Amino acid sequence: MTPLTIIGLVAGVMFGIGALAAVVRIIRGPSILDRALATDVLLAIAMCALGAEMAINRHTDTLVVLLVLAVFAILGSIAIARFIGLQDES
């Protein structure tokens, strides 16, 4: 095994643990803000994992997927912030 393979495996395990913790927070989160933050964290972990995979394998094939995930993260955060803002006003 090359050092790059070992680093990739360690990074994959760390991304997996982080994603599992985020999913647990999405399921158990007491408020919608906890769930929204955990969803943002999960999207960030997915984007970091895709970026790491692209760096390790030296390609840009999944760059479009990375950009789409970033757009979903931004739009989701804005939508939830507006929803929470409407609830606070009433």
TrEMBL record:
Coiled coil: none annotated. It is a multi-pass membrane protein. Keywords: Cell membrane, Membrane, Transmembrane, Transmembrane helix, Transport. GO terms for cellular component: plasma membrane. One of its GO terms (molecular function) is sodium:proton antiporter activity. It is found in: Cell membrane. The chain crosses the membrane at residues 6-24, 36-56, 62-84. It comes from the Bacteria. Its main location: membrane. Belongs to the CPA3 antiporters (TC 2.A.63) subunit F family. This is Sodium:proton antiporter. It comes from Agromyces bauzanensis.
